[in-house]
Known about the structure:
Radius of gyration: 22 Å
Largest sheet: 7 strands, parallel
Number of domains: 2
Low-confidence stretches: none
Oligomer: single chain
Structural class: alpha/beta
Strand content: 5-15%
Shape: elongated
CATH topology of the largest domain: Rossmann fold
Number of helices: 12
Strand order of the largest sheet: 8-7-6-9-10-11-12
Order of helices and strands: EHEHEHEHEHHEHEEHEHEHEHEH
CATH superfamily of the largest domain: NAD(P)-binding Rossmann-like Domain
Bound molecules: (2R)-2,3-dihydroxypropanoic acid
Mean pLDDT: 96
Number of strands: 12
Amino acid sequence: MTAAQPARPVIVLSRRLPPxxxxxxxxxxxxxxxxxxxxxxxxxxxxRCDRNRAVALVVxxxxxxxxxxxxxxxxxxxxxxxxxxxxxxxxxxxxxARGLTVTNTPGVLTDATADIALLLILGAARRxxxxxxxxxxxxxxxxxxxxxxxxxxxxxxxGILGMGRIGQAVxxxxxxxxxxxxxxxxxxxxxxxxxxxxxxPTADSLLTVSDVLSLHCPATAETTGFLDRDRIERLxxxxxxxxxxxxxxxxxxxxxxxxxxxxxxxxxxxxxxxxPDLHPxxxxxxxxxLLPHLGSATVxxxxxxxxxxxxxxxxxxxxxxxxxxx
Length: 326
Ligand code: DGY
């Protein structure tokens, strides 16, 4: 008679993870994968945790864990690990009240997201979508001095709203393009972290100098709908808006009106309220440069995010407090 193997802890994954991450998890745990990678309703996530007596649930920004959902999670669960730095999709207070540990993946996606912010700034300023569409539709009639003129970045003022890791990495990159950097943050950074940027004690003050405004604040009750008509009016005429943070920070109808009227020159957007069902009018505007939430989408970054998730699970299951506990 062979001795019964001790049961391996069960981990439920809401979506497919990078192959290297899934392979490492599968080597250590019983992993319930979302085989076809379609978004799962919250009730189905709860049911999978319940049926399998899961100890950890790995989610992504598209999985909403409300207080109500959290109240229905089984008692076997100890950890919710989100495969993201943002955690506005999880009611953290409700999770903590239930004694659950919640972790995220900070630090490892800073450079990838800052790179995408620069791609958006350049794409919006230099009319990259319009240009690409002209080539693909075979409607380009050739080089001419007045063709598709965009905005030069050198000497322009970049306003960074939210000077955390990603905001600082954007500042470093934008300086290489000759931009003058300004920022607003809840508190002023120590000089060695300011990257030579000018601090503005209020968001309104930052807006008035932002020829290009790059959003890097989390979506909270305070920042939801932040960029509305009144705040857009404070931006210099012909300003460019870039968002790699969260769609909820922008009032879509007001941004679309300003883009349509020419009050704003262009917008570069990687995130959208209600994504993937973004406001349909964005698609029809020639002055939008749009990406499908690709901020952290490099192989290296996604594998590093997976390593954070694995580390959180290992720490929590061995009784240590995970480094990335919220
Ligand atoms: C995050 O991590 O919060 C991003 O939005 C997805 O990488």
